[in-house]
Amino acid sequence: MVPPLCFQHLKQYRAMYRLRLIRKSCLTQIKLLGFDTRLCHSSRPPVDLIGINYPAETINGRKYRDNHQTSHMPLSKINHILKANEFSYKVNGYDGRNSVNSILGFDSNILASNALNEDRRSAATCLQSRGMLFGVFDGHAGYACAQAVSERLFYYIAVALLPVKTLMDIEDAVENERPVLPMLQWHKHPNDHTSRDSGKLYFNSLRTYWQERIDLEEDEDRDVQTALMNAFKRLDNDISLEAQVDFGDPFSHFTPLRVALSGCTACVVHVDGDDLHVANLGDSRAVLGVQEENGTWSAYTISNDHNAQNADELQRVLSEHPALERKTVVKHDRLLGLLMPFRGFGDMKFKWSGEMLNRVYETDILSANEFVKMLPPNYHTPPYLIAEPEVTRHTLRPKDKFLIMASDGLWELMHRQTVVQVIGEHLTGLHWQKPVSGLSFTLGQMHRLLQERKSRAILALEDENSATHLIRHALGSDGFGTVDPRRLSKMLSLPQDLTRMYRDDITIVVIHLNSANM
């Protein structure tokens, strides 16, 4: 006969066993749901399995709690990660022409997702021409192209903007080995990369560009829109020619061939007085933060995405190829079924002839795991990809308070209106001054709401850099305007091989405008 005490223990064990089976079944379903959500492109990450806390349950008078819990990252470490690449610059009050500058300053930041960050950013003041330049460059198939473009494009724009007389003076100084006045003043973070093994090649190509401008005496009707257009196309052409002339050192990460076969999108802004020009290739965006007379914020998008979601862009691509290719030029919303952006630098595998690509693939300079050594499917009438930017001009108004430039890593996580709202409230502090109506709240709910508001205000004070503040919201938002520290901690704690499933590299530049001067 079994003692009564053993029967009591047996009942407890059976109850615990049933609980484990239920939990195991729930976890299996959650994993399946998480897997399914990753198959589609969504702005929300898959179901979070990290740190699921089960409530305590009582079985026959005893409490049992699942011990699968994850310690949250401390705020100091979160801030260290978010602020590692942040950069801020305050612009001098005068622009050198005895007039007040239209830019107060800018904030920028980069948060990598890929093991090797493929995004780049640039900012510079034009010293021999006018205005300031800002750029966001989203690389793919490696970072080589984004790196090269981030270093070179602004010089090409400066050359395109300079009068022929100034170019002649520069050429004379170079020819006679005299010091040359710099064209640009760069504003860089110490972590921003610089390729050191291609400087001579880059300079020679740039010099050829200004020599051609001198020979052609291209000085009439020289406007910013034309200069941006010409600079983009000329740089992409030089990237192509450099790779065809010399494949380069196979041990270098920045060989002309690696630059040419990788690719990047580009969003570049030129600001001179109240004239703002945006030159865009691909799916990075420039969005103005506009404050209306009643104090509310609205988003005004200046750039257009160049992908299958843009009907005009899709029609442009289809019209440039024979009707027989209509079903293959864009497949599954991708160029030749492979590439999402329809415009970009590099990516010569979508631009060169089939004969040229086959000749390149026969070389030993590229390892088999770097690039697929075969032509894209249905590759009949290249080029399929162009580097001609869409240039938009906008006259700045007093209500234009800031401009946000960002790679698609941000826009996949946040709507443009939310982005502007977050930055606007961060800059004005209005968010913490809004009255809270207690009509629909209990006293306890009101207390919790005020506690949340206090914690959010503390988090906001952590960020003097607007780009950092935006990244914090993009990763940690609970969907109701609040940064959830637990969610932020989990997003920053993901293993490297999982991070890319949740988000892309994020690069942000926030330009603060001097609306009092407009």
Specify the overall morphology. Answer: globular
Rg:
27 Å
Largest sheet: 7 strands, antiparallel
Regarding CATH, which class? Alpha Beta
What is the CA–CA distance across the termini?
95 Å
General description of the model:
With 518 residues, the chain is of the alpha+beta class. The protein has a single domain, classed as Phosphatase 2c, domain 1, CATH 3.60.40.10. The chain contains 15 helices and 17 strands. The strands form 4 sheets. Strands 5, 6, 7, 8, 9, 14 and 15 form a 7-stranded antiparallel β-sheet that branches. The N terminus is likely disordered.
Task: Looking at this protein, list some descriptive labels.
manganese; disordered N terminus; Phosphatase 2c, domain 1; 6-stranded antiparallel β-sheet; EC 3.1.3.43; 7-stranded antiparallel β-sheet; [pyruvate dehydrogenase (acetyl-transferring)]-phosphatase activity
Q: How is this fold's topology laid out?
A:
Elements: H1 4-39, E1 57-59, E2 62-64, H2 75-83, E3 87-90, E4 103-111, E5 119-126, E6 132-140, H3 144-161, H4 164-175, E7 184-186, H5 199-216, H6 224-245, H7 256-261, E8 263-272, E9 275-281, E10 285-291, E11 297-301, H8 311-319, E12 330-331, E13 334-335, E14 345-346, H9 354-361, E15 390-395, E16 400-406, H10 408-411, H11 416-428, H12 443-461, H13 466-476, H14 485-493, H15 496-502, E17 506-513
Antiparallel strand pairs: 1-2, 3-4, 4-17, 5-6, 5-7, 6-8, 8-9, 8-14, 9-15, 10-11, 10-16, 12-13, 16-17
